[in-house]
User: Fold this.
Amino acid sequence: MLQELRIDVDVTDIRVAIRERLREYDDCDREQRTNPERADNAWRVVQNLLAEELAELNDGLATDARITEKDRLALPDGSQAIDIVYRDHKFSIVRPKDKRHLCLVDPSAGSLPIEALGSKLFVAGEPIAAGLLRAINRLVERATAGVNSHPKNDQHYMALELPAASASKIEAALNLARDNGYRFVESYRGQSKTRRVFVFERLA
Assistant:
């Protein structure tokens, strides 16, 4: 039994090491990309995540009860948008004419930046998958209750990018997060080799 447990732990460690190596390799390529290329990659990630989440949420529902997605790839002002619609309400993922960045435009929460920190995407400091699900939840609540249910400061995650060699700044950030009700989740390399991203989750 102990041998089987040890094998499971070893497999987990190996998997984590492989994922970390893949992430570092992806970061190396990321440093060579231009801002429009990074935005292209982020746009594809968001499209894929939305497609997966909506397929999961809509499974088994009648056609008129589903959340729908509408791509608007050639707007008159040169921008692009993905509208997520339920009944007469929507939120949008918008890519302006300059094609250099993305944002999530939500009537409940305003315009939230979608940014890459190292190898991951965040919506206003929240991991992209959780941020999109939260936006879908706000959409459904607006459509079914007619009210904006979540205030702008309903932030469940926080991400900070800090100098990797500055122990004092890292310690200060960890203490500040703890004092404000957040717990440390993970850390990984940032946009350059000299910086790291620290992710925190708000405690219930």
About this structure: The first strand starts at residue 68 and ends at 72. The beta strands are 68-72, 80-86, 89-95, 102-106, 110-117, 120-123, 126-127, 157-163, 182-189, 195-202. Residues 5 and 43 are 41 Å apart (CA to CA).
